[in-house]
Amino acid sequence: MMFESLQARLGEIFRRLTGRGHLSPEDVDAALREVRLALLEADVHFTVARDFVARVREAAVGQEIWKSLTPAQQVIKIVYDELVRLLGGAHRDLRTAPQPPTVLLLVGLHGTGKTTTAAKLGYLLRRRGRHPLLVATDLRRPAAVEQLEAVGRQAGVPTFTQAGATDPVAVALAAVDHARRSGHDVLIVDSAGRLHIDDPLMAELARMREALRPTEVLLTLDAMAGQDAVRMAQGFAALGLDGLILTKLDGDARGGAALSVVAVTGVPILFVGVGERVEALEPFHPDRMAARILGMGDVLTLIEKAQATMDAEAAAALERRLRRGEFTLADFLEQLRQVRRMGPLDQLLELLPGLGRMRGALQVDEQQLVHVEAMINSMTPEERQNPAIIDGSRRRRIARGSGMSVQDVNRLLKQFEEARRLVRQVQGLGRRGKRVRGTAGEAGPFPGGGLPWL
After folding, report:
1. Band of the pLDDT at 154, cuts 50, 70, 90?
2. What is d(CA 252, CA 283) in angstroms, rounded to the nearest whole number?
3. Residue 347 has what pLDDT?
4. Which of the listed residues 26, 185, 205, 289 has the most CB atoms within 10 Å of its CB?
């Protein structure tokens, strides 16, 4: 999982820190030495780790946090602020050309996910209302053009190709002309890659940049490569990079590349890949990522995922039914499908504040959701509308139809009845004008509210 080992180490350090009522300068120094070691173990560049700890120490001394009534929270706040700064500070979106098409030139080595990222980026832009076009200019790697066409079809984005072409620059220029004629406002150029950086590759990319004058030159980096990714970014710096896309971040337990590459290169991270699915490309927000690293969750990203997958009319209709106290198995199934469309459950749980430290105790089995959907699909429309009519013979039929046991069907119906009873209770509180208040403390200066170690 993303930043799992680093999050665990930092959480342990800060839990010990918050367990003390009073902090001395020596306590803070000891904690910062552990933070520096945790960063180095996470494969963060040694100069980045050194400078990061030095800035935190300087801020702690300047604020004289040991005189505060909550010195541990002050230390954590300083660490959070410095993490945001380390990751790039503010979020930056893609720039657009004054006159279409906007040209995005993707560069990178083989194995970094450049071609699949091109399709994911096209999908994201299509969801934003743009009309992207993929351009296949990797003419050396076997089946590279066919791969781009295949992932483009999955993303619902067309691909521009020229059969028998040998000059990638000529293909890219032809794609620009085609885009102007056909109304495509964004070109995503999948350039050639290599197993390693060499002079012919850089010469070809420089020639393409000179000819295309792209709006953005984006480098794809494998987040799991750690310091190798940082060195790769330095190698491509001569092209004049405008942004970075970190792929495979969902499988990076350490986070060394993400925490080092901006500080070393000065180039911002624009997107991160968090899975294999075509929609698994997220805009990069330094403040949200810092909150995830410190176990504070990322509620804003969770809300955005829900909004992106939710049908507004269906949600309004469900709300009206809930207000009338109606909640059926058909509604339950639709809600289940919406959750699955938002992404893998383990990734969704990571976005909830405080759940990062419970990873070991949380056993997420996506297959259980498939089983629930199979059982509900095996019911008749009447049974979904009124589960009370599901007697013993109907339960046996549903079990046979879904490949599950009668006990599984019984468990589903019991869980659904508990969910429906909860819905009715909440509606009853609303009708009586009562407010349902949480038990969490007042939100602090962090996303998600509060500190997960307190």
Report:
1. very high
2. 17
3. 63
4. 289
Average pLDDT over residues 46-73: 79
Q: Which domain holds residue 157?
A: 102-294
Determine the 3-state secondary structure of 189 from DSSP: strand
Of the two residues 61 and 312, the one the predictor is more confident about is 61
Structural element, H or E, at residue 243: strand 243-247
Q: Domain tally for the chain?
A: 3
CB contact at 8 A, 250 and 244: no
Q: How far apart are CA 85 and CA 54, in angstroms?
A: 14
Backbone angles phi, psi at 315, to 5 degrees: -65, -40
Instruction: Flag the least confident range among 32-36, 53-57, 368-372, 383-387.
Output: 368-372
Q: Per DSSP, what are the bridge partners of residue 107?
A: 219
Give first-to-last CA distance, the chain, whole Å: 23
Cα 240 from Cα 185, distance rounded (Å): 23
Is the pLDDT at 112 greater than 50? The verdict is yes
Residue 211 is predicted with a pLDDT of: 92
**C-alpha closest to that of 261 among 291, 221, 317:** 221
Cβ atoms within 10 A of the Cβ of 288, count? 24
Please indicate, yes or no, if residue 53 is contained in any of the structural domains. yes
How many angstroms separate the CA atoms of 374 and 133, rounded?
38
Q: Say whether pLDDT at 215 is over 90.
A: yes
Q: Please write down the HEC assignment for all residues of 60-101.
A: HHHHCHHHCCCHHHHHHHHHHHHHHHHCCCCCCCCCCCCCCC
Same domain? For 280 and 347 the reply is no
CATH value at residue 321: 1.10.260.30
- The DSSP-derived string for 274-334 is -SSSTT-EEE--HHHHHHHHTT---HHHHHHHHHHH--HHHHHHHHHHHHTT---HHHHHH
Give residue 372's pLDDT.
87
Q: What is the pLDDT of residues 337-356, one digit of tens each?
A: 777 776 666 666 666 555 55
Q: Nearest CA to 271 among 338, 188, 195? A: 188
